[in-house]
Amino acid sequence: MARYWGTGRRTVEQTRSLEIGFLQRNGYLSVPKQDWVIWRHEAEITGTARIEWDGTQLKIRNQLIHVGRTPCRFGGFRLWFKCACGRHVLALYSPNGGRWGCRHCWRLTYATRQAIPRDRQLLRAQRIRYRLGGSRNMLEPFPPKPKGMHWRTYERLRRVHDLADEKAMMGWARWLDRRERTVRTPT
Question: How many domains, the chain?
């Protein structure tokens, strides 16, 4: 039995997150440093936190988070957070602005796992639009190719988007046909 959108457990997408890749890309983990991280939803600031990195441990809002390293086969290393439960994870979450933990500790799920099947393809198409820098609104034109993206990647994403959009519309058409039959059926 499918659940309707928005019911059930809290999702990863609804929760403030901290990803190891974001910290690396923005230079937080290169040298000991103190700085602020700002979370935004669209243009609105939803939260801030002070981050302190001493070279081995990360401190966020007085919570110490251990950062581990795994050597890679051809040199270098991969960083990860060590959650309080012992898991090695790439992202930590703080649903209520409190302590940080992995998605298993907070019992978080993904939005697509809670979506009813006919909506999953629509979510896929919207996610591709958003990844390309456009709006999730399906009535707006498809976003142009972002600077730096290969044309082959852009065209592949466009094909996946169009296929997902077509499947979503077919799912909605089947659903409407079923509803129409139930309305026409005399009781």
Answer: 2
**Domain assignment present for 108:** no
- pLDDT computed for residue 2 by the predictor: 46
Which residue did the predictor score with more confidence, 65 or 97?
A: 65
Of 4-13, 60-69, 146-155, least confident by mean pLDDT is 4-13
Last residue of a domain, one of 45, 60, 94: 94
- The model carries a pTM of 0.67
Domain hosting 154: range is 115-184
SS (H, E, C) the chain: CCCCCCCCCCEHHHCEEEEHHHHHHCCCCCCCEEEEEEEEECCEEEEEEEEEECCCEEEECCEEEEEEEEECCCCCEEEEEECCCCCEECEEEECCCCCCECCCCCCCECHHHHCCHHHHHHHHHHHHHHHCCCCCCCCCCCCCCCCCCCHHHHHHHHHHHHHHHHHHHHHHHHHHHHHHHHHHCCC
